[in-house]
Amino acid sequence: MVVVSAESVPVKSEPDVVAVRRRVREVSAQLGLSLVDQTKIITAASELARNTIIYGGGGTMQVQTLNGPRVGLRLTFEDHGPGIPDVALALRDGFTTGSGLGLGLGGSKRLVNEFEIVSRLGEGTRITITRWK
Amino acid sequence: MSEIQLNQKNGTLAGVLGSHMDKILAEWLREMSNTVRRSDLIKESDLRAECSRFLQLMKQATELDGNNFQSPAFDGVRDMLAEISRNRSQKGFKPSETATFVFSLKRPLFNEIQAQHKGDAEGMAAGIWSLTELLDAMGLYTTEVFLKSREDIVRRQQEELLELSTPVVKLWEGILALPIIGTLDSARTQVVMESLLQAIVQSNSRVAIIDITGVPTVDTVVAQHLLKTITAARLMGADCIISGVRPQIAQTIVHLGINLLDITTKSTLAAAFSVALQRLGITFVRETVKS
């Protein structure tokens, strides 16, 4: 696997979510993902970026374009918030500690090809999602 | 009055401005013409009048309260700086160009103070130091006002955009349409919901079509906001139809697991309109036109 390009986007406040979506749209269009795949990863990025802000207290998004053997887009959301005590519970549909629908985390997992979540209490959370072409 | 006292008076900013105003004005204008005079944006005569008025105000202020920019004596100077800064922001000056209006006054004034303090190094240093502090404070002030006036413009535009972007359209007696374009965030939803509910009451409508063709991303927050709006409309006795669901949006909603099952959705506004007409029992008949 070859990382073709990598960049970091700040995810600090609500307007950043719009910037995240715009950036992911640009990169995924450049990569030549289909419209459906573009929409899927943009939506997943939107969910995770908002989680990073609301539950993680802000963080960053790494954007990596991958090439060889497959072309794909990998996004890594990282925060230094309180962490998730029970990841399995957090992934369950309808579960939320906030005021949302409780579908964002599980939903974004279903929207991408690869989903990895690492969370340590008191240290923060890192979520990596990948969508292959 | 002894000669030393006279010199001290002459050495202050007020003294310098009082006795050499014309010379300072001329040098200042020359200084600006070398750096930032934008003859394309401001007329020579206007600039001269502006500078002359500014020096007068500065003279009055420094006579009253030395070089203390924060004191009430400088109110006139501050007002004028703010006015200049705002005007130039509208005319298209860059903030650095506006600040340089103040900073280019440094050399002419330094020269004068230097001349007044011949052979008195300490007095000269003190004079120049307090002058630098004053001019820096003024320069920063113009930048602050500049930024604030820009922020005001941005905020006003945001508010206007919010109002503009959520029109409620009457399609038929009893049928409303609400085309949403752009992101549906919390602030936007509030405006959308208010204008929709108000329109439902005013027009006594029974069906409202929410068209999301112009919403690029439907994530859980957008869906939640849509559901809230629909629930509120239902409480007012109006049924909602969502139209403009594109294939990629439909797939995304399914993967996210959002339940829209008890809401009528259509891919096009035309289809939604036809459903709305049906619900109201309105039918159209195509008549053959006799020629």
Spatial extent as radius of gyration of chain B: 33 Å
CATH superfamily of chain A: Histidine kinase-like ATPase, C-terminal domain
The ordered string of helix (H) and strand (E) elements of chain A is EHHEEHHEE
How many strands, which pairing sense, and closed or not: the largest β-sheet of chain B? 5 strands, mixed
Helix content of chain A: 25-40%
CATH architecture of chain A: 2-Layer Sandwich
Shape of chain B: elongated
Unreliable residue stretches of chain A: none
Distance between the termini of chain B: 111 Å
Quantity of strands of chain B, as a count: 5
Number of helices of chain A: 4
Describe the structure.
The complex is a heterodimer of chains A (133) and B (291). Chain A is of the alpha+beta class and 133 residues long. Chain A contains four helices and five strands, in the order E-H-H-E-E-H-H-E-E. Chain A has a single domain, classed as Histidine kinase-like ATPase, C-terminal domain (Heat Shock Protein 90). Chain A has a five-stranded antiparallel sheet, covered by helices on one side. The longest helix of chain A is centred in the middle third of the chain and has 20 residues, at 35-54. Chain A is globular, with a radius of gyration of 14 Å. Chain A starts with a strand and ends with a strand. In chain B, 65% of the residues lie in helices and 9% in strands. Residues 1-10 of chain B have low confidence and may be disordered. Chain B has helices at residues 3-11, 13-35, 44-65, 75-91, 95-103, 106-116, 121-164, 186-203, 220-235, 247-256, 269-279; strands spanning 169-172, 175-181, 207-214, 239-243, 264-265. Chain B is built from eleven helices and five strands, in the order H-H-H-H-H-H-H-E-E-H-E-H-E-H-E-H. Chain B has two domains: 3-159, Orthogonal Bundle (Globin-like), CATH 1.10.490; 169-279, 2-Layer Sandwich (Transcription Regulator spoIIAA), CATH 3.30.750.24. In chain B, strands 1-2-3-4-5 form a five-stranded mixed sheet, sandwiched between helices. Chain B is elongated, with a radius of gyration of 33 Å. In chain B, 31% of the residues are buried. Classes of the chains: A alpha+beta (133), B alpha/beta (291). At the A-B interface, helix 1, helix 2 and helix 4 of A face helix 9 and helix 10 of B.
